[in-house]
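Collaboration report, partner site 2.

Our partner group contributed sequences for two proteins of shared interest, and the home lab folded both. The records are reproduced in the order in which they were received, starting with the first partner submission.
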Amino acid sequence: MPTLTGDRKADWTAFETTYRKITDQVPDLRDKLAVVTLEAIVAALGDDHAKWTHDVKQPPDYYDGDGYGLGLEANVDASQADGNLGVALAPLFVTTVPGGTAQAAGVRAGDIIESINGSAPFIDGQATPAINALYPRYPEARPVKLRLLRQSTGRRWSVTLKPGLYQRDLATLQVVRSKLLDDDIGYVRMTEFAPDSADRVLRAISRLQKGRTLSGVVLDLRGNSGGSPTEATRLLSAFVHGKVTAYHCTVDGTCAASRTDDTVELIDLPLMVLTDRSCASACEHFGSAVKDLGIGRLVGTRTAGVISGPAQAYLLGNNTLLSFPAQHHLGPDREVVDGIGVPPDHHVPLTPKDAAAGRDPALAKALTLLHK
């Protein structure tokens, strides 16, 4: 690397000179070097919302909604495996088996994964990169060998799973799903803060209220990877008015407040929000505001801590997308959430035995709190 001076224009010129000098020596590798160089530049930012999207491929027989991989999901999910392993907690176990070779091999929710390709997923309580192999992306197709333990029977065995395309239950792909629980609790699961998702949640609650009086609402945000901060603010506005839901601040400390939309009709119902380590970005915007503003209570586990700030995408000359934030996010109390997460009011983790038995202790706790 050349010596950098802090003068942006001069530094980029110096970098280009050095870069071209190196790549001219290996012209056959020029394209590959360009890829790894830009990937390294983005990674060096240390920002969880900085991303370069390029060379996206789909399997030949892919149909919208299909899954690719081993056909299982674990308590350490793909987003944690992809750079956020520090938050992972032992043991590693299967939470769901939506299809694929895992389903064909008889893998079940609750099965503990003791090794992956011969490597331990945790050493001295710290997650290892071995967990990455659970979530291959196309065109990765190397078989993955798992050593499993089924606590209910004490059985230990090994299984080799080959990544592939599999069909998923279309119902699970819905961004918003709702149902009535215990005859008086509205349950709404929201998998991302997609466009119009806040209004879809509000319509779902309205439908559940028809012909009955609800005692409260459970909003399940487990596995919600985020999305639009505008949608998060709009949904918060249904539970409180006249408040700041977050601050977005520039590097010089100038902060702009994100305020509730007080045109949204208030829902006068107790609120419980289910969170886990897969609740990230806009999901954490929502969770931190619920906690700071006293709108409701969080039940489950700490959120992901992946909310550096709203990202903006830039189209590059080769039709790839480079995105990164110009501002960083703070909660309503001006606390940093990125890298830390939002702690729940009631810590209720899922265990392998819960997963094997189909129990949902966090939901059970939320219902108990609403019935008090």
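Second partner submission, folded after the first:
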Amino acid sequence: MPSARDRDYTPPSAMPDYLIRHATLRQLQVFEAIVRLGSFTRAAEELFLTQPTVSMQIKKLTDAMGLTLFEHVGRNVRPTEAGHVLYEACRRMFDTLSNLEMQMADLKGMRRGRLRLGVITTAKYLAPEILGEFSRLYPGVDVALKVTNRDRIIDRMLSNEDDLYIMGQAPSDELEAYPFAPNPLVVMAPREHPLVGKKNIPLSRLVEEPFILREPGSGIRDAMLRIFDAHGPRPRVRMELGSNEAIKHAIVGGLGLSVLSLHTLTLEGTDGPVAILDVEGFPIMRQWYLVYPKGKELSLVARTFLEFAREIEPNLRKQVESMWPELSRYMHKEEQDSPPKKKKTARRRKKT
């Protein structure tokens, strides 16, 4: 007996077949890439096609639709109203096809497909290592990693451009957020700074020093300022920089102190030219979260990666502790003081 879902299904033989006969999946793939990337040239590079081929595919698709799909704005292109409608249909179609391919591969005992991961800038020190381990376990999965700032990640999330996101805090309306790795924030200074080696430095002493901060809107900046606001005056901000690497170079150059994620010292270690200060209230013990919009149906590969990242959390904690052994006492204290971890649903605070 047919199910309710079967009764709602319209077979292809009963559908208008004009697009089936006149449009191809390749044309729709090219169209989707142009809208997502905002450029014929970037779409051609991503799909390994020549630009004339991309233009030809779009001309054929435009003829099949009978409507203009793009409008030119300077050197960029953006979809028309018809283009927006087609783009949403393409995304749904490709998500379905991607899930089908992964389900078929799973039935064969292997995992294939594509994982699109968007991460905030600071997470670039963590994400490639996790993706490397994941790729060794599932070599048939193609991985796309987009590293950008927090505001752009939020835009990508709202546009559903990726499968999962790595963030230090969940900022959107309603999100599913799963903690999977520690993200301690520490005070950094040049190695020769007179405060290096001092114990339990009071915040009142730290405000005498010039500080280098991330740009407004940064989660690290917000967390740091909350600590200072809770204990007294804020430090003097000497400059704002939008790059962790630029901030570390400025620290080494003696331009000031800063608060950054411990992960930013992954390559040079904690014994390099940047030192970690022992300051009251620090480190700020935060977490990395895997995030996606609530209600979104994850692909098989995305669910597999989510499970993988949560399973390797103990290993990630050990790696962070080995990078800075002093951190272990803070992490163990946090475990004793904190209740068991649960999945976190984050809601955006309404702006007033």
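Feedback sent to the partner group on the second submission included the following. The two ends are 55 Å apart (CA to CA). Residues 122 and 159 are 22 Å apart (CA to CA).
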